Amino acid sequence: MDPAKKVHMTVWFLCNQECFREIANLFGMPNRSTAHYCIMQVCRAMADLRSKYICWPSNDECETIAREFSARWGFPNVIGCIDGTHISVKPPNNDRQSFINRKGYPSVNVMAVCDHQMIFREVFADRAGSVHDARILRVSPLGSKLESNQLGDVKYHILGDSAYPLLPQLLVPYRDNGHLTAVQSKYNITHSGTRSVVERAFARLKGKLSLQQLLLLHCGRQRLLSVIQ
C-alpha cells in the first residue's frame, strides 16, 4: 500500500476519532483490521522518530536559549517553560471516569516543555485527564531529574505556573495573597510574560497548524514515509 495513503489515513483517524470500520470504508480498505494495522504502523513509526525531534537541549543550546529568553523577556537563565494541556480522546469503556478532566470532557493531560522558539523539548503524555499537573510532573522522567537536580547546569531553570511545586530548577510565581511586595509583583509579571511562550506553543499545536502539518514538520515527510514502507 502507498505509504502516503497510510499517513493520510492515520491523520484522519487521529483528527476525527472515527471507528476503524468507517476509516476502512472511507479509504477503500478491504476490512477494518487492515485499517487498524496501517494506522498502528504509522503511529509506531512516529513514536520511533520522537527522540530525534523532541529532545532536551545540549549545553551549548541551553546557553543560547537562556540568552534569548533573557533578551526577550528579561528573565535570566531560563531554558524552557512547562505547562499542561488537555487533548480530547475517546475514553475506554471500562475506565471512562478517569479520563474526565475538570472541564467535563474526556482527555489525556499532556505535559510539555518548550523553548523560546516554541519548540517542544520534552513531552509526557501518559496520564488521563483527571490527573493533576503536579502529579504528572512527579511521575514523569523530567520530574525525577528535577527532584535530583539532574536537569543540567544548576544555574539553569524552567518556569511553571502555580500548579507545579517550587524546586531548585523549577521556578513558579508567588502566590498572590493580596500582600505581595512590589518586587514580588514585578517578578510575577515577568514570570507570566516569559511563561506565555508555552501557552502560545499549545495554541499553535491545536489551532494554527493542522495535525498533518505537524506530522510533516516534526517527523519529515520523506523520513516518515521511508519508515513505514
Percent of residues in beta strands: 5-15%
- Describe the biggest sheet? 5 strands, mixed
> How many H/I helices?
9
N- to C-terminal distance: 8 Å
Task: Output the helix-strand order.
Answer: HHHHEEEHHEEHHH
Global Rg: 20 Å
| Dominant shape | elongated
How many strand segments?
Answer: 5
* Poorly predicted sequence stretches spanning 5 or more consecutive residues: none
- Which structural class matches the secondary elements? alpha/beta
Q: Please estimate the helix content.
A: 40-55%
Number of domains: 2
**How would you state the average pLDDT, rounded?**
88
- In spatial order, strands of the major sheet run 3-2-1-4-5
Write a compact overview of the structure shown.
Helix content is about 50%, strand content about 15%. The chain has about 230 residues and is α/β, with parallel strands linked by helices.
